[in-house]
Structures are given as C-alpha cells and as structure tokens.
Amino acid sequence: MLLDSQRILFIGMHSDAIPVHTSKFFDLFNIDDFHLMTWNVETFIAEIEEKTGQPFQSQHHSFVYHRFKELYEERMRPILQWVRQGHVLVIFPYKFDIEIKIDGPQGIIKVDLNQFPPFNLAELTHSSRNLFVTASTFYADFSRFNTIFRCDLVLSGEDIVPLFLTSGSDQERSMIAGAAFRVGRGTIVFSPPPKVWDHPKLLDYLEALMSLPDMLNRPVDPFDPLSDRTSALERPALWLASFAALIMVMIALAPFWAPQVDRLLPWGEKSPASMQEYAALAARLTEIEKRSASSSFDVVAIKSVENALMRRVDQLEVALSHLQKMPVALPSNAQTAVLAPAASPGLLSDKPAAVPVLPAARQLLSTEEIAELLARGDAFLNRGDIVSARLFYERAADTGDGRAALRVGTTFDRAFLGQNVLPHVQDDPTKARLWYQRARDLGEAEAERRLKSLETQPSTAPSSYRP
User: What angle do CA 56, 408, 412 make, to 5 degrees?
Assistant: First the structure.
C-alpha cells in the first residue's frame, strides 16, 4: 500500500477497526495533516446530542441551534477548502429522516440536516438492493471492490459521476449506489458503506479513491451509455445559451433594422425631453443618496422608541405596585369564581390550588406589549445576555403570561444551557422548578413535560451567574 494509513483521517469509526487516525467531527484536528478524509455520517446524530446536550428529536431553543450551526460551519469551511485544493473527502452517507425542531418567532421551525453542505450535493433514497456493478468508466479501477459493500441508499443529483450501480432485473432500472462530485481540483465521494469496517480491502479501496481527481479528467468513453445520457442533458443548456446570444446580437444591431428602438438603448440618440427627464431623475437620486448616507437619523429614532418603551414599562410597574396595595372590588361573577372552590371537595386533595389571576392585573399590559417584552428578552438571550433576558421575561410573567414564566425557567435549566453554549451561566434546578410550576399553573402545557425532565437530571448545587 503506497498511501500512509496514518495520513488518513476517519471520523465516526472505532479506533480498533483499521489502523488509521480516528476522530470525532467536533474534535480539534488539522485537516492539512492528512491526504484523505472519510466520514461515517451515521454517528453524527450522537455527536449532535453530545454537543447540544439535548436529544435529537427534542425541541431546541433557537440559541442552541444557532450555536450548533456556527460550530458546524466553522469545522466544515476548512474541510471544503482542503477538498478544493485537490484532496478527496469520502462520505459514507446517512439519510436524516428526523428533523431538528427549534423555537421560532412564529412557532416551531423544522430544520433538515440533509440540506447542510456537503450532504445537499446528493438526494438520498432508501434501498434494499445488495447487488453491485461498477460503472464502465471506472470498471478497471473499482470492480474488485463490489463484494465488500452493502446498499442502504441510492443517490441522485446534478453533475453526478456514477461509480457504482445497483444490479436490477430486466424490469428494474439500475440506480446509482456510489458517486463522485467534482469540487474545485478535488473530489467528494458518496460511497456505499462496507459490510464490515475491518474488511482487509477497505484500505486498498481508499487508496484507489485517491486517484479520482486524475481519473475525472480523463476523456469520457463515447460507448458508455451514461455518456449519452450526460450529452442529452447538456443539449438543452447549449440551445438556451445559443438563444440568449442571438437575442444579444439582435439588440446590438437594432439601430440598423429598427430605428425606433434606438432611443431605448444606452448608446442611442436621446431627444431633448428625455435628456431633461434623465437630468431630473439623476438630481432626485443624488438627493436620496445624500439623505440615506446619514445614519444618525435612524439611530436617534430607534433610541427614542426604545426609551419611550422603557418609560412605559416603568410606569406600568409603578401602576401595578399601587394596584396591588389597593382593595380590588370584584364583579359578582368573579366573586363567585373565587368563592366557589371553597366548597369544592378538590380542596381536600394534597395538590396546591392555583392562585387566581385578577382581571385588572392582566389588563395593565396589552397583548402587543407582552409580545414586545418576550421579543426583547429573546433578542438579549440570542446575544448571550441572559441577565437582561430574565428581566424582560419576569416583567411579562408578572402579568400572568405562561410563556414568559416558561422562558424564565428555561434560563435556569441545564437542558437549555447545554454544553459549551452559555459557558458563563450555571444551572439552578430549584429556580427552574419554581418557574416551571408557575408556568404550569398559568396553563402552559409544556411546563409539565419540563418538570418531569428536571426529575431525571442528577442533582447539583445551584450557582449564580458569573460574568
């Protein structure tokens, strides 16, 4: 074997399978130290759960998802640049049938990991065919490896170069089981996985893949039916390009065969009236550009609105404190609602009764103002300022909003804080439980599930925010 096995980086494989350098995707490694990289994507779900601290199927907070996406792009960017320089990335693909759910401003948003690069190069479909043939173009190089693979997925996509095909019956059409994509001077290979990871031919197969960038520059065999299929796809594009070039030539020669079109072209002769219109339009554009060049007006307006909103919130808090000190005269139906539970046998149970929320306290803030407090809290949380986010959540929760109480509890919950997401904040299960109970009493159904999740977490001593 000419390829040094220690210059092969294998992600997502047990270290004792074959003698190569192994790593996890989010571990630190220098990609320039390796000649070839392989990735068993099936283990990526477990790494995501380890990195975010949440199950893959659970509902993730938007801050947790954005932090995970930043870490993924930070790791994948140098790998793709390394491929463009002439290297080979071998992916043993995995179809993510489950989507990540995150909290969005308009509700739950589903994120499809299959659309992350480089997974988005190929569209994957489950398959149960296990008979392989090598594409005729690469028969001499890869046919000896047909028996070591299993077929779980078939591929399709643009600019795809088939390497392996499924062998179907006369009624079944062969499908692509392994393929390559040109990326710069390098290649990304979607390879069928081996039946066993310690197969003795696997290293020989990886060494053969090292020559793919040179193989893809060879002339295509004209007798290969796949070449005819590629030509059939290129013909419509050639016709469209020729049609566009013909239109450009007709426009350029328009002054000779259509003088009336001459005035519409940039180099055509303009009438005095049209020149005046162009001058007036240019003056208006210059005025608009000068007006938009100064950003102080927008900044002052934004700060003025922000200060007015803060003053409004402070006034409402003062009014709320005065209202709580004053005796409240409830209407007859409200008194009935408060007094009725006194005769109810439910008071004899061991569950604490929910504290009734007075209608007057709820009317201090409108629905729009509560939504504004939640939005500002989310904005601070996405920037990592958890202390400011709690202030806005608590103000909204004081009006009896269950969503706000749930958000306050989330900022103390270890499941939200995750691993390496908010490193300066420690969880406090006691406070998280109190706020989740309050959200449950206010009618938030999600709070009950999070209370049960707290019971399964190991107990730790609470600690406070450390700047």
Answer: 65
Q: Report helix, strand or coil for 168.
A: coil
Going by C-alpha positions, the residue among 415, 412, 401, 416 that lies closest to residue 366 is: 401
**What would the two tokens of residue 67 be?**
């932090």
Q: Under CATH, which number does the domain 355-467 receive? A: 1.25.40.10
The class (CATH top level) of 5-218 is alpha beta
CA distance 441 to 447: 9
Under 8 Å between Cβ of 145 and 201: yes
pLDDT per position as a tens digit, 7-63: 888 898 765 667 788 888 888 889 998 989 999 888 888 888 887 777 776 666 776
Instruction: Give which of 404, 386, 388, 391 is closest to 443, Cα–Cα.
Output: 404
- What's the pTM? 0.49
Q: Do domains 5-218 and 355-467 have the same CATH topology?
A: no
218 φ, ψ (degrees, to nearest 5): -75, 155
Q: Where are the domains of the chain?
A: 5-218, 355-467
Calculate the average pLDDT of the chain.
75
Q: Does the N-terminal peptide bond of residue 118 adopt cis geometry, omega within 30 degrees of 0?
A: yes
